[in-house]
Design goal:
The chain has 391 residues and is of the alpha/beta class. It has 17 helices and 13 strands.
Length: 391
């Protein structure tokens, strides 16, 4: 198994809490990580219908042979089991007894927070970071290959062509989760919604327009977006809300958790095609944002990310909330650094400097290969994304 950054945090939490819950998208490696870190625990998958029926019909009998410790996979399939787990860990609160994994974010987190409050720690495992991908024999060679392939483990450890894998993923996981979580009567309209959402990556979210473009109401579009968020397909990046002296745009931006999936939905069949695609800049921006998001979540931190845009045109793609103050990140898909890349950062530096003093730091991430140290910011190549401060 390629080492995961989250492993360190996972082990630390298991020394303090009787229950640790690992959430994240399907096929992001949750089961592999849990079984590797907790190899001495019994492993039970609640995906199997007979096991699920046993756990639901006789939860006490199901848990009895697992008292010394167990990994319970896809626990959101039997949410009522959590109440019996509460009784069990109250009886014996030994740290690290139970490790739960699940993919349906909202339902699982609500169940855990209501039933196992104070007893369970929750961490998020997203697909591989660039640093983790370097543990494979053939990691991405350039920014566009990294963006097009995404980070799902099967593409690297089983060498499945991205187009084949994402097509299967969309059919067998996304659509199944959608059917489980929401009564979508017109699956074709939802598929259209999903593809149109991918085409709006990095844009201010207009749910009314998005719904109208695929023939559904604003309320339906809102419900469908909630499903994409709950199944770790898409997320909203909020605007910056610090006390700046200008009116800021209050609408969030839309991003996908994995750019490989977004590329598949947009019909992009290779890194070469992505290089000349009209959405090249938006997709690369999405890749950088999610790399920073992974870095934070895999350390057990809150997302702490936003973007800056005001009514007068000032814009910075990403702001990271760190202990030393905000980190401003501008993202460009060009492979050569141009002077106009720095315009937004320079304008933002004075604004952030007035709020946070000299601790405000600036970075430019681009699709080229050379690092540059400038007086106003640090220029970081795509391959150096791990050097961006994340905490």
């Amino acid at each position: 198994m390629v080492p995961r950054v989250l492993e360190k945090k996972l082990r630390a939490l298991a020394r303090r809490f009787p229950v640790v819950t690992i959430t994240g998208p399907r096929q992001s490696g949750k089961t592999t990580l849990a079984r590797a870190v907790f190899a001495k625990h019994a492993y039970v998958s609640l995906e199997a219908p007979d096991v699920r029926a046993f756990a639901s019909a006789d939860p006490r009998g199901f848990l009895a042979p697992l008292a010394t410790g167990a990994v319970l996979d896809e626990v959101q399939r039997v949410p009522e089991l959590l109440s019996y787990l509460q009784v069990e860990v109250d009886r014996d609160p030994k740290p690290g007894r139970f490790v739960l994994t699940g993919s349906a974010n909202v339902n699982l987190l609500e169940s855990v927070s209501q039933t196992l409050a104070g007893r369970a720690a929750v961490v998020n495992l997203l697909p591989f970071t660039l640093g983790e991908l370097r543990g494979f024999p053939h990691p991405p060679r350039n920014a566009f290959e990294a963006t097009w392939k995404g980070g799902y483990p099967a593409i690297y450890d089983r060498r499945i062509p991205p187009g084949d894998w994402y097509s299967s993923y969309i059919a067998t996981y996304v659509e199944r989760d959608v059917r489980q979580m929401l009564n979508v009567t017109d699956l074709l309209a939802f598929q259209t919604f999903l593809r149109l959402a991918a085409g709006r990556i990095g844009q201010l979210l207009n749910l009314s327009q998005l719904g109208a473009d695929c023939g559904v109401t604003h309320n339906t579009a809102r419900a469908w977006l909630s499903v994409l968020e709950a199944t770790f397909i898409a997320f909203r990046l909020p605007p910056w809300h610090s006390n700046l002296r200008k009116r800021l745009v209050k609408t969030p931006k839309l991003y996908f958790y994995d750019t490989g999936l977004a590329c598949a939905l947009l019909g992009i069949h290779g890194a070469r095609q992505l290089e000349t695609h009209p959405l090249r800049g938006s997709l690369f921006e999405n890749w950088v944002v999610t790399e920073v998001l992974k870095a934070r979540l895999h350390q057990g931190l809150a997302p702490g990310l936003s973007f800056l845009r005001d009514r007068k045109g000032l814009e910075v793609d990403l702001l990271i909330d760190t202990a030393r103050g905000p980190v401003a990140v501008e993202i460009k898909s060009g492979q050569t650094v141009a002077e106009d890349f720095f315009t937004g950062l320079r304008q933002a530096a004075s604004q952030l400097g007035r709020e946070h003093g000299p601790q405000a730091r600036s970075f430019l991430v681009y699709a080229g290969n050379a690092e540059q140290r400038r007086s106003s910011c640090t220029v970081v190549p795509w391959s150096g994304i791990e050097t961006i401060p994340s905490r």
